[in-house]
Amino acid sequence: VQLQASGGGLVQAGDSLRLSCAASARGYTVVWFRQAPGKEREFVAGIRWNGGTTHYADSVKVRFTISRDNAKTTVYLQMNSLKPEDTAVYYCAASSRVILSSLGIPSSYAYWGKGTQVTVSS
């Protein structure tokens, strides 16, 4: 499956952005990771193919919402109340068979989109 991420940009603290991850096929759990300069890639949010269950990192749980369209080929990450610490390159990734305990591990995903930069100024 091919993934294309988009929607990043430069915003001020408190603003909102919506990222999109367009997939070339259905049937995959899709997640968002982010990576800030000098830091490891970290899990942000995910939505499972089977049932649409969503998962969030504690740091974004109240502010971010992950969803997918009816065709189940595009996943969105609505980011509200953005903070400077949300600044990072955001990547979407997909897997057809990731288990819950591995959801937040980058090596669980064989398919990755190119990152989209999100910069939040204070």
Note down, in words, how this protein is organized:
The protein is an all-beta fold. It is 0% helix and 48% strand. β4 (29-35) and β5 (42-47) form a beta hairpin. The chain is globular and about 40 Å long.
Q: Could you give a short description of this structure?
A:
The chain has 122 residues and is mostly beta strands.
Main pleated sheet:
7 strands, mixed
Q: Helix tally? A: 0
> From the structure provided, what is the oligomeric state, counting identical versus distinct chains?
single chain
Strand percentage = over 45%
Rounded to an integer in angstroms, the radius of gyration calculated over CA atoms is 13 Å
Tell me the series of helices and strands, N- to C-terminal: EEEEEEEEEEE
Helix content: under 10%
Q: Name the structural class.
A: mainly beta
Please mark out the parts with pLDDT under 50 across 5 or more consecutive residues, or reply none: none
**Could you tell me the number of beta strands?**
11
Ends apart, CA distance between termini: 37 Å
Principal-axes geometry comes out as globular
Mean pLDDT score, rounded?
A: 95
